[in-house]
Design goal:
Strand content: 5-15%
Largest sheet: 7 strands, mixed
Structural class: alpha/beta
Number of helices: 12
CATH topology of the largest domain: Aspartate Aminotransferase, domain 2
CATH superfamily of the largest domain: Type I PLP-dependent aspartate aminotransferase-like (Major domain)
CATH class of the largest domain: Alpha Beta
Length: 402
């Protein structure tokens, strides 16, 4: 497996929440489907059946990781498409097949969802849907009582909630929602529940046979699989979504388009390897995270924004900033050989003042001092120790510039 440290350039990669390298073993399984096993799985001959069989195996592998039936796995181009399909497809179906006007119903989400959710919700709002965005606590959490109160309030306003859509593990803050508790509230009120699970796949134990989740979105590239591949998980016998992409009727008329066999094979094996090493990798990630917190906690003015309770935070993300920091420079300007983020990659390349601070009600942290460090099972102890040393040195340099 490729190491996190590029020894030829003495550089350190700590941006695994943005993307992960494709596991060499996963790539090895993918490669034949670019060349020798190139058949179109929708055709009717041996070459096609070869590809179709590989896709069936991938469905089983993803289903095993998530604790669901393989028929619930619908492959997409990634979580952005999956989220768009879940939200648009759900409300399109309400209009077309149940004759429910969007102005007469609501969706509940949060104010700090991933951009793919927020932009899709904005689109639906323009179409007339009532969109209610819950504000998270300073730990980035939504409480079951908060959700239930919003559901009851909207029902009393004659705009009943039809769907709740919440990000399970936050891509910047690293907060981890109590999805079982939130899903139970939805189930109590007979409301469907969509979860953006992009950051939690392979980091949290998921069992959709028990978890009260109706729709789940994911991406392969956060799981040491290929970019451009993802899935939307739902039971087509129980839930109806209008297709987002129309065409030849692939995937049982749910999502048209020639199936990306190499990418799907990659997602399947990435899921298999994540399942095999889930507990081992989780322990390693928590160890690294705690070591960094311990190593930096004495820095004057540092503020860890990721919740400290392991039950409320992702094991691989640590988000923090400083109350003392020069306003004309960022950590990235000083840490030239350390690859990390100041905000989610979904915001693009240009640094924007993080709106997450406003969502959390935090005003005493210098915005351009923020750092999101994200770890991997590929990370080494030496890299963690070097990271701590470099951040300490950088902070001392930054203080001299104030």
């Amino acid at each position: 497996m490729t190491q996190a440290l590029d020894k030829t350039q003495n550089s350190f990669y700590f941006d695994y929440a943005a993307t992960t390298p494709c596991d060499p073993k996963t790539l090895e399984y993918m490669l034949p489907y670019f060349s020798q096993k190139f058949g179109n799985p929708s055709s009717s001959h041996a070459k096609a059946w070869e590809a179709k069989g590989a896709i069936s195996v991938a469905q089983d592998q993803v289903a095993h990781l998530l604790g669901c039936h393989s028929s619930h796995v619908h492959f997409t181009s990634g979580a952005t498409e999956s989220v768009n399909w879940a939200l648009k497809g759900f409300f399109d179906n309400l209009q077309i097949h149940k004759q429910i006007e969007l102005k007469n119903c609501s969706v509940i989400s949060t104010s700090f969802e991933h951009e793919c959710s927020l932009q899709t919700l904005n689109y639906l709002k323009l179409k007339g849907l009532n969109v209610e965005l819950l504000k998270p606590s300073q730990k980035g959490l939504i409480s079951p009582d908060q959700l239930e109160s919003a559901i009851i309030d909207l029902k009393n306003k004659n705009t009943p909630v039809k769907l709740v859509s919440i990000i399970w593990g936050h891509n910047e803050l690293g907060s981890l929602q109590d999805i079982y508790a939130l899903g139970s509230v939805c189930k109590k009120h007979q409301i469907h529940f969509h979860v953006d699970a992009t950051q939690v796949i392979g980091k949290v134990l998921i069992n959709l046979k028990e978890d009260p989740i109706d729709f789940l979105s994911l991406s392969a590239h956060k799981l040491y699989g290929p970019k451009g591949t993802g899935a939307l998980i739902f039971d087509p016998q129980q839930f109806s979504l209008t297709p987002l992409i129309h065409g030849g009727g692939q995937q049982n008329n749910q999502r048209s388009g020639t199936l990306n066999t190499p990418g799907i094979v990659g997602l399947g094996w990435a899921a298999k390897f994540a399942q095999d090493k889930l507990k081992e990798n989780l322990d390693k990630l928590l160890c690294y995270k705690n070591k960094v917190i311990e190593g930096l906690t004495q820095l004057d003015g540092i503020e860890f924004l990721t919740p400290s309770d392991p039950k409320e935070s992702l094991p691989h993300i640590l988000f923090f900033g400083f109350k003392k920091w020069p306003t004309n420079i960022s950590p990235a300007d000083l840490l030239k050989n350390v690859y990390f983020s100041q905000q989610s990659a979904c915001h693009g390349q240009a640094f924007q003042k993080p709106i997450i601070l406003n969502h959390l009600g935090i005003s005493d942290i210098v915005p351009n001092s923020l750092m999101r460090i994200s770890f991997s099972h590929l990370t080494t102890q030496n890299e963690i120790e070097e990271l701590i040393r470099l951040i300490k040195r950088t902070y001392e340099e930054a203080l001299l510039m104030i």
